[in-house]
Amino acid sequence: MRKITVAVDGPSGSGKSSVSKETARRLGAAYLDTGAMYRAVTWHALDAGTDLSDAEAVAAAVKAADLFISTDPDVERITIHGTDVTEAIREPFVSEAVSAVATNLAARAELVARQRAIIAAHERIVAEGRDITTVVAPDADARILLTASEEARLRRRGLQLGGTQSDAELQAQVLVRDAKDSTVVDFHVAADGVATVDSSEMDFEQTVTAVLEAIKAQAD
Ligand SMILES: Nc1ncnc2c1ncn2[C@@H]1O[C@H](COP(=O)(O)OP(=O)(O)O)[C@@H](O)[C@H]1O
Ligand SMILES: Nc1ccn([C@H]2C[C@H](O)[C@@H](COP(=O)(O)OP(=O)(O)O)O2)c(=O)n1
């Protein structure tokens, strides 16, 4: 099988994780959820009582993090210092705190280096996040920005969390977080050479098909 690296970026709730994972399965490729890495180090910092407003303490915690993430699209598993946090990192309290790590430039540099090493270790991989097309893997064979309207993204995240969140809570976890994260990386506008797939009016299957077509157009 031919070597291929696919980079996917986009805002919260655009469908990056679910669509990239299914795309990886169809390509027989590995899958890397870089957001899960930011979430895991945030979970650990909170658990350890690290002051998230202390940039040096956050950076030190990220550098020391013993982090494992599965790259099998059929096995969702992430551990930090031996603790399985696969479920815990999806909790709203992590979503609301994660930008403190994502906007810390030293923490980003550490995670970017680890993400590049994971990508380099795989012949075929789909990696998704906020800065994969621009910083982590700008030389990827195919680069895609997956977008969706604010309304679609809020609705999807609300459904995903089982209708447990109020409108204000969803806004904090999706829109406020994106606004904070956008101060360090631009994931709303496609960089040169990056194809945009707008999933607002598409269902899941149509989005996967559109992403596979965009990959074919770039990588062939
Ligand atoms: N094109 C789509 N149409 C409808 N629902 C979608 C679509 N893409 C993703 N979803 C659903 O929206 C939710 C959020 O998607 P997710 O992949 O977690 O987004 P992200 O990783 O960008 O935050 C999931 O429940 C997913 O199944
Ligand atoms: N490559 C990445 C991936 C995620 N992040 C940050 C930004 C997000 O707030 C968090 C969590 O990302 P995640 O992809 O899990 O978030 P969503 O599922 O899109 O809501 O990590 C980042 O800064 N750079």
TrEMBL record:
EC number: 2.7.4.25
Catalytic activity: CMP + ATP = CDP + ADP; dCMP + ATP = dCDP + ADP
Domain Cytidylate kinase: 6-216
Intracellular or extracellular location(s): Cytoplasm
Organism domain of life: Bacteria
Region Disordered, residue ranges: 1-21
Binding of ATP, residues: 10-18
GO function terms (MF aspect): kinase activity
Pfam families according to UniProt: Cytidylate_kin
Database matches in CDD domains: CMPK
Chief place where the protein resides: cytoplasm
InterPro entries for the chain: Cytidylate_kin, Cytidylate_kinase_dom, P-loop_NTPase
Alphabetic keyword roster: ATP-binding, Cytoplasm, Kinase, Nucleotide-binding, Transferase
Segments forming a coiled coil: none
Broadest EC class assigned to this enzyme: transferase
Entry's family note: Belongs to the cytidylate kinase family. Type 1 subfamily.
HAMAP family according to UniProt: Cytidyl_kinase_type1
Identification of the protein by name: Cytidylate kinase
Organism placement in taxonomy: Bacteria, Bacillati, Actinomycetota, Actinomycetes, Micrococcales
Gene encoding the protein: cmk
